[in-house]
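We emphasize that the prediction below concerns an isolated chain of 384 residues; any contacts that depend on oligomerization or on bound cofactors are therefore not represented. The input was used exactly as deposited, without trimming of termini.
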Amino acid sequence: MKLTDCHNFYDFRKLAKKKLPSPIFHYIDGAADDEITYRRNTSAFNDVDLVPNVLRGVENVDLSTTIFGKKLDLPFYCAPTALQRLFHYDGERAVGKAAQKFNTMFGVSALSTVSVEEIASLIDTPKMFQFYFHKDRGLNDAVMERVKAAKFDVMALTVDTITGGNRERDLRTGFTSPPKLTPSSLFSFASKPMWAINYLTKGKFELPHLQDHVSEGTNIATSIGNYFSTMLDQSMNWKDAEKLCSQWGGHFALKGVMSVEDAKRALDIGCTGIMVSNHGGRQLDGSRSPFDQLAAIVDAVGDKMDVICEGGIQRGTHILKALSVGAKACSGGRLYLYALAGAGQAGVERALSQYRAEIERDMKLMGCTKISDLNRNNLRFRKT
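Result of the prediction step, given as a token string:
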């Protein structure tokens, strides 16, 4: 299978599975417990039908949207995801350059493998930094200052990782950061020699925002679930979030809000946006899908802050449905990570291009020429 054989999300997933050792692939692909929420994140979109209009003159379609004061040419962006160097040796460099080519936002994880300084020097597309609140206050302050100095546009505090989700696939495969060979994983790594060669020869694996403060994840192999459970501060509360928002002083969002009550609290502490997200189904299995919660949250705060729908997006029509409910934009990780793993920057560009083409085509079929044309009159809900 080649990149040119990839025409949708599922094709990129197949290509990634072909290229990656099993523990790495299943780290991207897996979720918590029975993975019910992971599947529900996508299937929720199937409970809503699109109702198109015709004869609307749709030769010119504008896909742009504005979030956090920045105009994007696409109504979706690349959500921050950790450890991208494990998926392809270019990691965040590849994703950032692809995001810039399409003039959309690039989200950078606290657990990124390229520094904010380098990313800022590489691209000038809008940038979001995803912040994990560690027990080590010195680490928190140092990261905040580095991101400020790099002039990132948005700070997003992740609030749904107060402890690690039960990612059973990772337990079975023995996935850790950095990767380590075990008797059960030896064959998987040996069967993907190009991945191993690139991993060993294309620069050292690093977590530049954390490694000066903690050894776990860089020098000491650990699972992501264990990292969350031991290194992040489980006492984090609304006062801490409000202090971080004030300390940042710019556009500030909470990533992982799923209730109306929390959306309202986010507004009260000064947030300018929220990501309605359950961490891709990787934390609390059995929780609602972001799309199912979106309407209630938009109705509560959507006229006062930017509401982003994140999770389960595999088609352009999924994005159209979220925008019709009232999201200002959508975001996702797997929607580009499989493509990154399969073919680096070229893969991410192909994925983004396909999503753009799907959205534009489907906007025309809906009889809409701009994002603001989309509304709930375009939708019929099969059930609640």
